[in-house]
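[User] At your convenience, examine this fold.
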Amino acid sequence: MADLTNKQRMAIPRHDMLEQDPKERAHNFLEVNLGYTFELAKEEAARCIQCKDPKCIEGCPVNINIPGFIKKIELGEFDEAIKILKLDNTLPAVCGRVCPQEEQCEMVCIVGKKNKPVGIGYLERFISDWERESKGIQVEKVTEKTGKKVAVVGGGPAGLSAAGDLIKMGHNVTVFEALHEIGGVLIYGIPEFRLPKDIVKAEVRALEEQGVKFITNFVVGLTQTIDELLEEFDAVFVGVGAGLPYFMNIPGENLNGVYSANEFLTRVNLMKAYKFPENDTPMFDLEGKTAAIFGGGNTAMDAVRTSMRLGAKRAMIVYRRTEAEMPARIEEIKHAKEEGVEFMLLASPTEFIGDNDGWLREMKLQKMELGEPDDSGRRRPVPIEGAIEIIPIDAAVVAIGNGSNPIINSTTPDLNVNRWGNILVDESTMKTNKKGVFAGGDIVTGGATVILAMGAGRTAAKAIDEYLKNPSSW
C-alpha cells in the first residue's frame, strides 16, 4: 500500500477493533477489546498520510513519533515499528488500551478533519501486543553507567515512566512501592477487562530486565522519609499519585455496603475478589443485588461495569449533570450502555438510608437541572425544588475523585504544596522547592490520565539527568 495517493488513503474507512459480545462480556472479566488482525492493522496504518507537520506528535504527552511507527506497520516492518514506539513510551501496551487518544493525538489528526482520525491507539496496542506475544518484550541493557542513584517513589505510571528513561540514561534506579504489586492504578484501579494485569506485569518485568530495581511494601514517609532517601540517593522522584478518596459528606456514608471507588476496585483487582471463592476476599456479595455508582468519569465506569460482572441485577450510574458533561471516555460510556448499565442523570444523592443492622438499603436522590456554567466551564447542576426520589439499593460506590495522600507531606514539612496537598513544581522540569527532589503525576496535578502522568515522568527524568550532571547549578 506504500504507493497509495493521499486521496486513496483518505478514502479508506477507519477500522474498529473487534470486541467481545456485550451479553457475554458483561458477565466475565476477560478483555472487552480484542485488537486488530495483521490485515486490519496494515490497512489502518495505510490511512496515515504522513503529514509534513504531524500534529499528532504534539498532541501526545510523551511525544511519540507516531507517523514513524505507523509507517513501519503499513510496510509490515513490525520490528522497526515497536523500536520507534518504545523510544518514547515505556508502557506501550498499557497506553494503547487506556489512553484517551480521542482527546490527544487523534483529536488533532489531519485525516480526522474530513474523515475519522487514524486509529493511533489501536495501532499502538497492536504492535506492542505483537512484540509481547510473538517473541517477548525486547530490552536493551545500558552498559555505560553513571554511578548515580535515583529513588523513584511510587510504582504507578509516572514512576515507571521516569524509571524507564532514567535507566536508559545510565543511572541506577530503585522504585519504592507501598503496595505488594508494582503498577499503581494500572494494577489496583483499572479493571481486568480493560487492562489485563499480565500485560502490566510484562512491561514491569521488561523494566526489571533493563536494570530497574523494585522494592514493594515500602511506604515512603513511614518506612523511610524523603530526607532519609536523600542520604542514600542522589535524587528522588515522587510519583505517589492521588490515592485519598473523596466522599460526598452526606448522611449514611458510613453504612455497610458503601465503598469508595478506591476500596471497591482495589478489593476486586489487587485482592482478586472476582475469583471468589478461589480467592476468599472480603467483598459484599452483589449477586442479584442493586448497585449505584456516583460519578461520571472513567473510574465510575470501571466500578459500574465491575459491579455488573460481580452479578448485580441492576447497575446504575448516578450523575448530577447530563451525559454531555461526563468526563469519561466516549468508548467507556458506549461499552457501559451496551452491557446494560443504567444512566440516572441530573440526580444527586442527599442521603443513604440503612436498616437496623447498619446495612445500606436505600438512597435519597435530589433531581437536578442545569444552570449557569461554573469554574469548570460546565453548566452547574441546580436542585429542582421538591423533586426527591427514594430508590432501593444494596451497594453504593463513590467515584467522585481523589486527593493527595497526606503521608509524604506530613513527613516532609519543607516540601511546598498547595491547599489541596498537591506538590508544587516547576512544570518545565518537575523540580520541587527541595533540592534533589522532583515530582510528577497525580500528586502534582490531582487526578488525571495515565499518559499525562507518564509525560510528567519523562519530563522529570530529563531534568534529573541534567541535575545529576551538575547539581550545584540547580
